[in-house]
Amino acid sequence: PSYYKMGDHTECVDIYYDPTITTFQNILKLFWKSHDPTIHTSSQYRSLILSHNTVQTAQVTDSLQVQKKERHKEVCTRTDDFSIFYQAEEKHQKNQLRRHPALLASVDWEESLASSYVATRLNGCLGGHTNMASFNKEWEKLGLSKEIAAYVRKVIIKRS
After folding, report:
1. Are 15 and 24 in contact (CB under 8 A)?
2. Whole-number Å distance between alpha carbons of 33 and 37
3. How big is the CA angle at 14 (ends 120 and 149), to the nearest 5 degrees?
4. Considering only CA atoms, which of 49, 57, 58 is closest in space to residue 12?
């Protein structure tokens, strides 16, 4: 379905991660740090965690309980089991990267932005979710030119 025909929905991301690099617990920590779960919003933008299995459900429940104890306001985050996921239309993908149209146009994407590993990594870098040391270890593996890497470094410095 298109964005305008979704009806009652919540915008969310389905995260694939390498458990040899990070943990679900670390992802939960980033989730809580990245937004204010005490704000009441419409269902489209509400705070929501969807679990893929019983282990994740237990970790989410524990994490939510900790948040409820640590905050002095009601935590509005909802939890549920992951079921149906509709990928956003291409024009809604990689919002941070799209804010840099020259960069977006300069890379020959191996596939759609939604499924591109390189686009995902750049989107995170441009959104402030890396540091210079990490980017310097990674840029060549991503197949970026020196010019593109220099541009991303300037953004990382500006966001620091």
Report:
1. no
2. 9
3. 10
4. 49
pTM over 0.70: yes
How far from each other are the two terminal CA atoms of the chain, in whole angstroms? 38
- 10-residue stretch averages of pLDDT, the chain, 160 residues long: 66 86 95 93 90 97 96 93 84 89 83 85 92 96 94 94
